[in-house]
Amino acid sequence: MVDVKLSVFVNGIDRGALVPMSNLILNYVLQNKTIGKVEIREDRIAFSKYLIKKDDILYSSNNLENRGGIIYFTGSEHPKLDYGNAGVLLMNILRQLKPRLVGKLSI
Predict the structure, then answer these.
(1) Which residues sit opposite 47 in a β-bridge?
(2) d(CA 68, CA 81)
(3) What is the pTM assigned to this prediction?
């Protein structure tokens, strides 16, 4: 099991961007189980363990874009949700997170 803290530094995530965001985050976390914190920033998703930065996923290279503080999906074909119940749980958490609030996900 991996416990991950999520924090958001944007105003929100558009409904159409929830599936791609969930897939990106879960794919990275499940492949790199040493992640403890995921930050949804203005132009990227940042991953870290304690105070050590691990990696970033840029929105621009993943059909995501920040417009006025809201993250939107810009691709033409919407991806399917991966990771079953964990993907659904993360989507629901992302939908409810507000700026600077921290949520916790256990997968």
Answers:
(1) 38, 55
(2) 26
(3) 0.91
| Sheet (strand 64-67) strand order | 12-13, 70-73, 64-67
pLDDT at 4 over 80: yes
Bin 9: left if φ > 0, else alpha if -120 < ψ < 50, else beta: alpha
Report the pLDDT averaged over residues 80-85: 93
Instruction: Mark out the alpha helices in 3-83 (DSSP H runs).
Output: 18-31
Find out whether 29 and 94 touch, Cβ atoms under 8 Å: no
Q: 10 near 67, Cβ under 8 Å? A: no
Condensed to tens digits (0 to 9), the pLDDT of residues 27-59 reads 999 898 888 899 999 999 999 987 888 899 999
